[in-house]
Amino acid sequence: MANPSLLILAGDGIGPEVMAEVKKIIGWMGAKRGVTFDVTEDLVGGCAYDKHGVPLHDDTMAKAQEVDAVLLGAVGGPQYDTLDFSVKPERGLLRLRKEMDLFSNLRPAQCFDALADFSSLKKDVVAGLDIVIVRELTSGVYFGEPRGIFVEGNERVGINTQRYTESEIARVARSAFELARKRANKVCSMEKANVMESGILWRDVVQEIHDKEYPDVQLSHMYADNGAMQLVRWPKQFDVIVTDNLFGDVLSDCAAMLTGSLGMLPSASLGAPMANGRPKALYEPVHGSAPDIAGTGKANPIACILSFAMALRYSFDMGEDATRIEKAVEQVLADGLRTADLMGPQDGTPISTTQMGDAIVAALDASL
Ligand code: IPM
Ligand code: MG
């Protein structure tokens, strides 16, 4: 059988630095677990714009459609802020999501015991937290038409459109219910049905899919603003949260910070199954390109490494090795190793990006 294939798009800022640590883990999988990946690398974001004048070249897009999974680092940087909207680094990422039709974005927020003190919330609120936000990723206000900046009379008007079809809501709802069944069997759906028609439809369709196909799963509905408040008040009330593209963007940043650091959180963006049965998939850390610390060795590679673990679990049916990587991360944190983002100013000396990667590889070795 052919080796599993990966396309690595490290991107901008700290992307290449954290991805270098993932490559160590990929190498470890080959050397110690006998799983060799065929790895291709290419450009996305600002670096692609610098070379090709577009944030994602058509050839790169075509490669992304062919591989078993895409691993992405991060895109963006201040030098690209003044570019035309159509070629901004983020457009490269949005094109990948849209053309691969990655409608279900899983964003786990898990609090590692060793970091519970580091959250801005009280320890008992976050200790042991383990929730997943399922964010719809290919529709809603991010992509709805009409959109643009138009002139009306003597002023400009900015327009974006929130638009959801029943089938778009149904498929992301199914993925949330499927996930819940493997977890605590609870889904909370968030929208603004009190002010938006798209929210009313969202609530109806989620309820319908539940009643017809997943009556065993416990379902609740919440307005998204209340959801934001509840996430901060008592996040452990949730198991799986399913929500639209924009609410999911905002709520997942909020959920991320509950765990202490954005530098810890992975994500998976999944589409429909391909001919080989694997879902179309892209894995990326939730954090951005952090241009302020790029090149300083301060970046935390854990989110990117855990994203690779998600790839093993969701694309390659290697849940055991995914768990092994997650345990290795837990181990190095329990040993007190910290990158700069996981420390206060008084907490001693942080280790570097590469030292963190090496420590995780050493913990993996010790696990065999
Ligand atoms: C995210 C990011 C992206 C988004 C940006 C970079 C386009 O914030 O993945 O959450 O808004 O979806
Ligand atoms: Mg975001």
TrEMBL record:
<feature type="domain" description="Isopropylmalate dehydrogenase-like">
    <location>
        <begin position="5"/>
        <end position="360"/>
    </location>
</feature>
<feature type="binding site">
    <location>
        <position position="225"/>
    </location>
    <ligand>
        <name>Mg(2+)</name>
    </ligand>
</feature>
<keyword id="KW-0100">Branched-chain amino acid biosynthesis</keyword>
<keyword id="KW-0963">Cytoplasm</keyword>
<feature type="site" description="Important for catalysis">
    <location>
        <position position="192"/>
    </location>
</feature>
<feature type="binding site">
    <location>
        <begin position="288"/>
        <end position="300"/>
    </location>
    <ligand>
        <name>NAD(+)</name>
    </ligand>
</feature>
<dbReference type="InterPro" id="IPR004429">
    <property type="entry name" value="Isopropylmalate_DH"/>
</dbReference>
<comment type="subunit">
    <text>Homodimer.</text>
</comment>
<feature type="site" description="Important for catalysis">
    <location>
        <position position="142"/>
    </location>
</feature>
<protein>
    <recommendedName>
        <fullName>3-isopropylmalate dehydrogenase</fullName>
        <ecNumber>1.1.1.85</ecNumber>
    </recommendedName>
</protein>
<keyword id="KW-0560">Oxidoreductase</keyword>
<feature type="binding site">
    <location>
        <begin position="77"/>
        <end position="90"/>
    </location>
    <ligand>
        <name>NAD(+)</name>
    </ligand>
</feature>
<feature type="binding site">
    <location>
        <position position="135"/>
    </location>
    <ligand>
        <name>substrate</name>
    </ligand>
</feature>
<feature type="binding site">
    <location>
        <position position="253"/>
    </location>
    <ligand>
        <name>Mg(2+)</name>
    </ligand>
</feature>
<dbReference type="InterPro" id="IPR024084">
    <property type="entry name" value="IsoPropMal-DH-like_dom"/>
</dbReference>
<keyword id="KW-0460">Magnesium</keyword>
<dbReference type="InterPro" id="IPR019818">
    <property type="entry name" value="IsoCit/isopropylmalate_DH_CS"/>
</dbReference>
<comment type="function">
    <text>Catalyzes the oxidation of 3-carboxy-2-hydroxy-4-methylpentanoate (3-isopropylmalate) to 3-carboxy-4-methyl-2-oxopentanoate. The product decarboxylates to 4-methyl-2 oxopentanoate.</text>
</comment>
<dbReference type="GO" id="GO:0003862">
    <property type="term" value="F:3-isopropylmalate dehydrogenase activity"/>
</dbReference>
<feature type="binding site">
    <location>
        <position position="107"/>
    </location>
    <ligand>
        <name>substrate</name>
    </ligand>
</feature>
<comment type="pathway">
    <text>Amino-acid biosynthesis; L-leucine biosynthesis; L-leucine from 3-methyl-2-oxobutanoate: step 3/4.</text>
</comment>
<dbReference type="Pfam" id="PF00180">
    <property type="entry name" value="Iso_dh"/>
</dbReference>
<dbReference type="GO" id="GO:0000287">
    <property type="term" value="F:magnesium ion binding"/>
</dbReference>
<feature type="binding site">
    <location>
        <position position="249"/>
    </location>
    <ligand>
        <name>Mg(2+)</name>
    </ligand>
</feature>
<keyword id="KW-0520">NAD</keyword>
<dbReference type="GO" id="GO:0009098">
    <property type="term" value="P:L-leucine biosynthetic process"/>
</dbReference>
<feature type="binding site">
    <location>
        <position position="97"/>
    </location>
    <ligand>
        <name>substrate</name>
    </ligand>
</feature>
<keyword id="KW-0464">Manganese</keyword>
<comment type="similarity">
    <text>Belongs to the isocitrate and isopropylmalate dehydrogenases family. LeuB type 1 subfamily.</text>
</comment>
<dbReference type="GO" id="GO:0051287">
    <property type="term" value="F:NAD binding"/>
</dbReference>
<keyword id="KW-0028">Amino-acid biosynthesis</keyword>
<keyword id="KW-0432">Leucine biosynthesis</keyword>
<dbReference type="GO" id="GO:0005829">
    <property type="term" value="C:cytosol"/>
</dbReference>
<feature type="binding site">
    <location>
        <position position="225"/>
    </location>
    <ligand>
        <name>substrate</name>
    </ligand>
</feature>
<keyword id="KW-0479">Metal-binding</keyword>
